[in-house]
Amino acid sequence: MSNMSATPELLRCEGSAGAVPAREVYPARSAELGGGLTVRRALPHRARRLVGPWCFLDHFGPARFEQGKPMDVPPHPHIGLQTVTWIIAGEVLHKDSLGNEQLIRPGALNLMTAGNGIAHSEETPPENTHSLHGVQLWTALPGRQRQGKAAFDHYPVLPVAGFGACRAVLLMGSLGDARSPAAAYSPIVGAELSAERDGSAELPLEPAFEHALLLIEGSAALEGEALAPDRLYYLGAGRRHLALAVRAGLRLMLIGGAPFGESILMWWNFVARTAEEIAQARGDWQERRRFGEVAAYRGERLAAPEFVGRLKPGG
Ligand code: MN
Questions:
Q1: 8 Å CB contact between 3 and 9
Q2: How far apart are the CA of 26 and the centre of ligand 1, in A?
């Protein structure tokens, strides 16, 4: 995914200070991804920019189409983050400047670690099931790793844990005894919760983590209150359990992690610490340095927007 805004905001994101349970609701906003695909962006939200190291959450689809490419995000750069791609229906073809080409289908995870710089494209492949539904999240990389080497990993199978009527697939981190093989660089959890029958579920949470939920489809209730779709439910920290009432057909994302200990700056597709780092990365992309080329992609790459380098008042 890419921030396609012609005038992306410069956002400062700070980890949470308190470690107390909360119940805050933030509506996702619509964003265009090019090619006609509209996504709902749940993170960053003006009033909630980080959940642990998670700094970006796009929900795309469900969409049905007869022809064409509903997803066609041309080559664009990233620094300082990981992209975590999870497909619910359909398929996405990833191509990057390290030479990787990876088709992702439901049940598998694509994890791209940008480190000091990588470029990639994401598109609907020519042969497809005429459907598209999924999420992409970003995590901020901590100090030591953010200037490391770029990497791309594909995990075809992820661990599953059962909690009452819920089935949890571990994308990142662990829940109960299930641990994702995906490489993470700070204390984190990311899981898809689903239900094939009506019932209840109690999931163990790490009390040092802050957590949030995003309903993807179906229905569930938290502490007696039904969750609405495309709203980020921020739960704060200090919770040892998550008690849910679930209906068959539920699909819900759970994200969390230790409050991120560094103040980060986000702009366009970059996560950095200073405006100078962002200006440097933007210039390197425009001058075709540092990031390499996505040689397998047919078409033009994305041009970087102008970087003004100022935080909005109150931002
Ligand atoms: Mn991207």
A1: no
A2: 23
